[in-house]
Amino acid sequence: MSTTTYWSPNQAAVAQVRTYTFTAPSSVGNTYSAAINGKTLTYTSVSGDTATTVATGLYALLNRSSGLAPELTEIAFTNPSAGVVLATSRTAGTPF
């Protein structure tokens, strides 16, 4: 007797979430980037940077009010703790 299995997508959509934890730059000029669909936003480390300042610097670039690629505006970025940037899809079920 053969069995046929059917798949039915009955689950609620879930927002994609990614956590990025930074380390202190090893030298001035290290780059930290967020890239999606060939569009890149980059923070370059300066003298005195720590993991916290790097994460805060990239977070500030990702949350500016103008000039962002449309793909990056589909993601909500937060800086929940020192040295961490959290990315969450604004639309549940839409990956980035």
Shape: elongated
What is the straight-line distance between the termini? Answer: 43 Å
Helix content: 10-25%
Number of strand segments: 5
Briefly, what is this?
This protein is 17% helix and 28% strand. It contains 2 helices and 5 strands.
List the keywords:
96 residues, alpha+beta, three-stranded antiparallel sheet, two-stranded antiparallel sheet, 5 strands, 28% strand
Descriptive account of the structure:
With 96 residues, this protein is an alpha+beta fold. Helices cover 17% and strands 28% of the residues. The protein is built from two helices and five strands. It has helices at 51-62, 70-73, and strands at residues 17-21, 31-36, 39-44, 75-78, 84-89. The strands form two sheets. It has a three-stranded antiparallel sheet. Strands 2-3 form a two-stranded antiparallel ribbon. Strand 2 (31-36) and strand 3 form a beta hairpin. The longest helix has 12 residues, at 51-62. The termini are far apart. The model has no long low-confidence stretch (mean pLDDT 91).
Detail the topology: elements first, then pairings.
Layout: E1 17-21, E2 31-36, E3 39-44, H1 51-62, H2 70-73, E4 75-78, E5 84-89
Antiparallel strand pairs: 1-5, 2-3, 4-5
